[in-house]
# Entry
Amino acid sequence: MKSLISRKSCFGLLMILMLMFLHGYAYSAISISEIMYDAGPRQDLPLWIELYNSSLDRKVNLAGWTLEIRNAEGAFVNLDFVNSAFKFDQNTIIQPNETLLIVSLPAANTVQRSPVYDLSGRHGRALGLTEEVYLLSSTGFQLTLLNKQGIVADTVGNLRVDGDESILMWALPQFPLISRRSIVRGYGGVYGTLGFEHGTGPHPANDGYMRESWRVSDGDLSMGGNYYGNPDDVGTPGFRLGGPLPVSLSSFRPVRSEQTGHVDITWVTQSELNNAGFNILRSDSKDGEFKVINVKGLIAGHGTTSERHVYTYTDTTAKPNVVYYYQIEDVSFDGKRTTLRTTHLRGNVAAAGKITTTWGDLKLQK
# Structure
């Protein structure tokens, strides 16, 4: 009996540990990715905190999660700041490889694709957030994100709070009066960028307490002027949005090999952005059904790169004497697919793989 109980106990403990591991893995994807703590020269513009879901296939519902906000005293004695916490409402969802923008109040913006969470409307009273009380201090803050079990998912800031003691560890960048700037978190040692690596997806977030983990947003990162609060802002709200992102394709050419009879497909990219990889699709007619032929898995891309890359894939299932149409599509890290080009081959091929007529030029079919 003791042996049976012991086995059951061990099995139960193992299941608990596995569930804890899986739970921790699911929620470790959420991190604080960008912070706007400058309220502008008149101290009247909204402040915001951006959360990022680095999972490529799992959406996260923040219902029951908590964000604790601790602020240092400001440079001006007449300014007060939030020192409280709030719990997210139900069905606050961050899709894979997308963001949630937590804002102190509604304002003009260009980030409609990114979900916006209005603190003033949802938790203003609980936080004590008013026109005289600001969300973040430009001197220092500590932000702690806890999941619904109360486990810390992420902590960032230049202020370390330990009980009643608060220590400023480094100075926040102070911005010129002409425009506001945010600070952007690095991922995997790549500061202020997406932080993707070929074949592996997104890196984990860098240590949020370290000054080196943050980069001041600038024109190179502004993604065409995205802003929340004022058009003069320089920031990257919604920068890590999912969705199909462009791959610059300069060539896509299938050619049948005279030696093997197989079709060797070559394509060249001049740049890639958020590109997990490619699928090659084939049909025996222009308007027919295109089916993926790389059935063993995605042909890996190079993530985000401005360098030229040459790819090849061999279609070993192509039959002789058949003129096929080929498509290439890119797949972003969040799984969205975009058809880049369709080409077709003209001419007849003998059973031995010999070309009996000249292949025509490849044509782009929109």
